[in-house]
Amino acid sequence: MFFLVKDPCGIVCIILTYLAVFYADYVIVKWVILQTMQNSLWGSFHMVMFNTVAFLASMAHFRAMCSDPGTVPLPHSRMDFSDIHSDCNGGSDQEDWTVCTRCETYRPPRAHHCRICKRCIRRMDHHCPWINNCVGERNQKYFLQFLVYVGLLVIYAVALVMASWMEECPECPMDITVRQSRILHTVLVLVESLLFGLFVAAMLIDQLQAIFGDETAVEQAQDLGPYRPHKPRMALLTEVCGRTHPLLWLLPCDTLGPHSSYQNDSSALLTHEV
Predict the structure, then answer these.
(1) Where does residue 41 rank: exposed (0-12), middle (13-18), buried (19+ CB within 10 A)?
(2) DSSP label of 67
(3) What gap in Å lies between CA 166 and CA 147, rounded to an integer?
(4) What is the predicted pLDDT for the residue at 88?
(5) Helices 176-212 and 8-26: angle between axes, nearest 10 degrees
(6) Angle at the Cα of 120 (from 77 to 57), degrees rounded to 5?
(7) pLDDT in tens, 31-60
(8) pLDDT tens digit string along 171-229?
(9) Is residue 21 classed exposed, middle or buried when 0-12, 13-18 and 19+ CB atoms within 10 A define those classes?
(10) How far apart are CA 108 and CA 22, in angstroms?
């Protein structure tokens, strides 16, 4: 399902994100690898590897941006909320369901309304303008992948730039204009990498703490406290990344299985429709 939020701020952030990735790729390939490693096999190796990481980062960002984060289905007709505390329409499995007055529907536990997406999102962590989408049940894996790959891209770029500065390069062009252009571009990409690196590191730590603590950012803000049974860390990661081999968690592809949660939500909502 293609999911796109029409938020001007988010669209600007998306453009800035892709410009930053493409500029870093341009500088590393043209002004670092082709200038300092043009006659070395290491140049070909680094070009392939750096572009592979950049491609995976772009794909993970695209999936996080365009995937349905876990929107709660809307009812087909007006709903009767008089039985919200009744046991006859949901039993113990639905005792924690609440009512969203904006969507005018029931929402399952851990679902929250996003004022930007204008929908309730299952296990909503936060709305991220850099992906112009909510980080929720069905796209948190892609968001984590994006953070990891951007982090690797930052480390890779900084290492290549520092190596190009520290090692002498007799094969580099001696033209003063070319040398000044290379220095200028590498300084700019180094500053960009450091800024993005700090941001990504903070976000990745925050996401991992939320996953291992089994508490989203929204739940932390509401100060609900721990109310779910303790689970192993691998089980918590599996809930986010899917029940596949951990190596497949690195690929920006569907590994979460069928949308059973949506089917359960639809079935539950039908029992409340008038």
Answers:
(1) exposed
(2) S
(3) 29
(4) 43
(5) 130
(6) 135
(7) 999 888 877 888 899 999 999 999 999 999
(8) 666 778 888 888 899 999 999 999 999 999 999 999 999 899 888 888 888 776 556 77
(9) buried
(10) 40
85: tokens are 């505390």
CA 76 from centroid of its chain's CA atoms: 31
Output phi, psi for 253, to 5 deg: -135, 165
What are φ and ψ of residue 44, in 5° steps? Answer: -65, -40
Look-up: residue for tokens 């894996």?
141
State the CB neighbour count (10 A cutoff) for residue 132. 26
How many other CB atoms sit within 10 Å of the CB of residue 195? 12
CA angle 162, 165, 168 (to 5 degrees): 130
Q: Provide the annotated active-site residues.
A: 128
Residues 162, 226 contacting (CB under 8 angstroms)? no
- Joined tokens for residue 71: 């929107």
The contacts of residue 43 (CB under 8 Å, 6+ apart) are 33, 34, 36, 37
User: Measured between alpha carbons, how far is 222 from 230 in angstroms, rounded to an integer?
Assistant: 20
Structure confidence at residue 154 as a pLDDT band (50, 70, 90):
very high
**Cβ 60 vs Cβ 130: under 8 Å:** no
What are φ and ψ of residue 242, in 5° steps? 110, 160
The pLDDT mean for the chain works out to 83
Q: Does the CA dihedral 265-269-271-272 come out positive or negative?
A: positive
The string of DSSP letters for 154-188 reads: HHHHHHHHHHHHHS--TTS---HHHHHHHHHHHHH
Instruction: Specify the range with the lowest mean pLDDT, choosing from 161-170, 234-243, 264-273.
Output: 264-273
Per-domain boundaries in the chain: 8-72+123-260
* Contact in structure between 126 and 217 (CB atoms under 8 Å): yes
